[in-house]
Amino acid sequence: MSFVLLSLAFFATAQDALQNEPETAGYKTAFKHSGAAENWFFHIGAGGQLFMADEDMDCGAGFGDRFTLMPEVAIGKWFNPYLALRLKGQGGSLHGFQKPALGEPDDAYQMQHFKYYNVHFDVLWNWANYWSAWSPSRKVGFGPYFGLGYARRLQDDNALLPARDWNRNPNDYLPGSPETTSGVLAGSDVISVNAGLNLSFSLNKRIGLDFDLGAAIVPDYFDRTVHLTRNEAIVSLSGGITFKLGKIDFETLELLDYALINDLNGKINLYRAENAQLSKRPVDCPECPQVAPVINEVINYVPNVVFFRLNSDKIDANQQISIYNTSEFMKKTGEKIKVVGYADKDTGASKYNLDISKRRAKAVAKELTAKYKIPSEKITVEWKGADEQPYPHNNWNRVVIMSAPD
Q1: How far is the C-alpha of 344 from the C-alpha of 23, rounded, in Å?
Q2: Alpha-helical regions (H) of 25-139
Q3: How wide is the angle at C-alpha 251 spanned by C-alphas 248 and 253, nearest 5°?
Q4: How much is the pTM?
Q5: DSSP notation for 219-287
């Protein structure tokens, strides 16, 4: 239990650190917690289980005697790509064993066949998404889980053997003793400590396969016998189908590079000021014929940039200034504009990056036409994916660049 609590504390600390640390190496990206109805999953499956007790080892029972089938169901929610909570239920029948009584042959062990269920809350940690750059196209996930639960061994009305503690007087276990009722022990209610490893495979956007190798630690009296140790284990290997429910995307909390934005906007204002000064400067040429000056406005335009969050084609409110400046330029000059979408090369497959750069470019073009009333025939839309990287810093390339046509 102490190990589980320490693990939970570590997860909370790691998550808080990531939410307050900017992305520096391309993979420590902080994510916005998903909403109440987002990123849920439901799992149904089955597997095999073994009840591991001291007497099971001592009596010489074979694997086939101890192996039983185990159904399972689970429901949970991912709070970000690497941290989830899950409520899981499993159960079925377990085979336990009691050693032969004194004077009986060594192979005269008694098999217990009892039913149980175990319901536990688990914390899942996906190593694949934590230690490397998260990608919505990733097919494999892997990591540990830890949790606490409630396990109950159901009462067996057909049981004939009372509970035994091999360190006490056998006369204490006659029918009617405190441990039994007419020779039958009532069902056991215990706290279970659960841990294991989870392996997941994504078949498509909504359906995947999940496999668990796990163990549930229960007190020694769970099987009606008390022997050498205080705890015993139910070891299981299971797999099944997982269905993803609701919205299944994640929104990053990356810090935008406002220094770059301010630098670009500063250059725009500088060129505009220079253009205004040039248009007002008188012509100094005494030998030239005195004619009325003709002022031609010089068009100087520095490309405007719209930044996007990781795996997003939504335009943030603080990016509207760039689109507004472009629309004003087009209205004043009548010039056409080229809108080009990009994606960073360190995240996602080439096909996915091409698609998201297309969606980003079209989102900006739609904003120009719908919000700022720019005619669509004045806008050329292109997308480059991650094949071209306009900036040397990977994170800067999740952009749409608006510029005058070549």
Answers
A1: 14
A2: 54-58, 63-66, 127-131
A3: 155
A4: 0.55
A5: EGGGGTEE-S-SEEEEEEEEEEEEEEESB----B-PPP-HHHHHHHHHHHHHHHHHHHHHHHPPP--TT
Asked if residues 296 and 396 have their Cβ atoms less than 8 Å apart, the reply is: no
Q: What is the pLDDT of residues 361-402, one digit of tens each?
A: 999 999 999 999 999 999 999 999 998 999 888 888 999 999
Q: Which of 97-106, 155-164, 198-207 is modeled with the greatest confidence?
A: 198-207
CA distance 343 to 330: 26
Amino acid letter, 198: N
Q: Report the alpha-carbon distance of residue 218 to residue 225 in Å, rounded.
A: 13
- Is the Cβ–Cβ distance between 295 and 279 less than 8 Å? yes
**Residue given tokens 């900006």 in the structure block:** 364
Q: What is the DSSP letter of 206?
A: S
Q: At which residue do the structure tokens 């496999």 appear?
A: 211
Residue 121 parent element (H or E): strand 110-125
No. of helices (H) and no. of strands (E), the chain: 7, 14
Q: Which two tokens stand for residue 349?
A: 């497959």
169/178 Cα distance (integer angstroms): 14
Cα–Cα dist 392/255, whole Å: 17
Quick check: 336 and 380 in contact, CB under 8 A?
yes
Coil, helix or strand for 50? strand
**Cα separation, 330 vs 328, whole angstroms:** 5
User: Which alpha helices (DSSP H) does 44-201 contain, by range?
Assistant: 54-58, 63-66, 127-131
Domains of the chain: 2-100+109-245 (2.40.160.20), 259-285+292-403 (3.30.1330.60)
- DSSP codes joined into one string, 130-155: HHS---TT--EEEEEEEEEEEEEEPP
Bridging pattern class, strands 379-383 and 337-341: parallel
